[in-house]
Amino acid sequence: MKLDGEDLLPGDVVFDIVYGPGFVHRIDAHAQAFFVRFGNRSAGYRPDGVSDRAQRRTLYWQDPVVFVPAKSSAKWQLLLRMVRALWRTIERDPLVEVIAHEPPQEPGHGA
To answer: 3-state DSSP call for residue 79?
Structure first.
C-alpha cells in the first residue's frame, strides 16, 4: 500500500493534523486500509490519508503546516507560487538527496 506514492510500512511515522505524530501499526491490503497508533488510540485511514471520522484528508508523512497563512489573499497566493516553484526545482534535482543527508555546518566553520 502507498501514501502519496511512497510505500507504507508497519512502523512508519506519519502525522495527523488533529492528533499529531503516530506510527503505522497495521495494514489491511484487502480492505485498502491502514491503522495508525497515537498513544493509546488507534485510527483507520484509506490510502489517500482520509479517515472515517474526518471525511477529509488529515494524514501526511510530515506536518504539512509550514507557514501561518497570511490574511491577505494576494500575499498568500504569492507565497504559494514561490513554494510550488521551489518544490518543482527540488523534485527534479538529483543532488537534493545528497544535500539533504549532509550534516549541517556549524556557524563560523566551513565555506
So the answer is: helix
Output the pTM of the full model: 0.74
Secondary structure letter of residue 28 according to DSSP: E
pLDDT at 76: 92
Using CA atoms, how far apart are residues 100 and 68, in angstroms rounded to an integer? 24
Residues 74 and 49 in one domain: no
CB 76 within 8 A of CB 69: yes
Task: Walk along the chain (111 residues) in steps of 10 and give the mean pLDDT of each run.
Answer: 95 96 96 96 96 92 90 94 88 72 59 48
Indicate the number of domains in the chain.
2
CATH of the domain at 47: 2.40.10
pLDDT of residue 87: 85
In whole angstroms, how far apart are CA 1 and each of 42, 59, 108? 18, 15, 45
Residue 23 falls inside a structural domain? yes
**CA separation, residue 107 to residues 28, 41, 87, 111 (Å):** 47, 42, 26, 10
Domain extent at residue 83 = 66-102
